[in-house]
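pinned: reference chain
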Amino acid sequence: MTKLGVDLFQKEWPSEFEGVRVALLIHSASYLGNLKSTLDAFLGFEKVSVKSVFAPQHGLFGETQDNMIEWEGYRDLRTGIPVYSLYGKARKPPLEVLLEVDGVVVDLQDVGSRYYTYIWSLYLTMEAAMECGKFIVVLDRPNPISGSLVEGPVLKEEFASFVGLKPLPVRHGMTIGEIASYFKHKYLSDLELRVIKMEGWSRRHFWQDTGLDWVNPSPNMPSEKTAILYPGMCLLEATNISEGRGTTRPFEIFGAPFIEPFSLADYLSTLGLDGTTFRPLYFIPTFNKFAGEKCGGVQIHILSKEKVKPFKIGVAVIKAMMELYPQEFRWKQPPYEYEYVKLPFDILVGTDELRLKLERREKLDEMEAWWQAQSESFNENIRKDFLLYD
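pinned: its structure tokens
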């Protein structure tokens, strides 16, 4: 079974950081392999004193169910420790809070996609720590959709937002510790960073291979399958098509009231999307888009985790909507994730080029060749220098 960074932190804790005051950046999936919470583990660790907690989007316990719901900080009733929100009035740790500690310990479960916001809470925390002369310790965790597969365009910095602040492919194939190392060496060179590595994790592993229980890192991320499809199906957030929020299978189910599911499933089945099959259905979301309305749609079933290309699937779904329902399909307009000018689709993708290609009705395979050239270049020229595992 994989041993997480948090499973090993007491043994691997840097000797120069003994007797320090720390803040923890944690969330609903911050647990050891035995399901003891990271907070409780650090409260019982005699070499540090926990003074405060930061938590990202969705709150410390995943309380905020829907997307883009801000929350306010509070004092934890059980421990008496103040909990500060990094998804509300501030997305960067306040200076006055950091001045009360010597460093920040980060234990966040990412899902392997650039627009999952926790890595950007990590980046802003690293930036704030560097500005205050504080250290960061990252407790590494698996990339649940494997660390060997990279897919999608690389973000252009003029499209930076809270769903992508620095260049990464959409499916980045890195652990959060590897991403932290990339951030430090490329953008935050004066930061004192330590990464406590995992044991027993391989790049080819999916979550199921770790032997660990799945704890939802966010309310709409209930399984490994959801995480695998998320790098592509999250693109539907930037359209008027439901991405399945308000159902028990978000990002696996999608649709809209105007969709005829059987013809859509048949169309998608002709596109050569490896590792998947498409099952027509109807559903009624309980919240988010089309809440309470009957939608026609499709459920994506994964046949081969190794072969499935989630970003290609997401683009194929949008292309299908534009071709089958040209009068009904719409791009979502801003604001979205604190961006008030650029289209949500463009900031998710990290460029407006893909949207323009879709609007020109370019072929799916030609678009894939375009984005794969970018991700492969990033892999060869940047990503490979920061990989910590074979």
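why pinned: The chain has two domains: 5-218+382-386, 224-359. Residues 242 and 255 are 5 Å apart (CA to CA).
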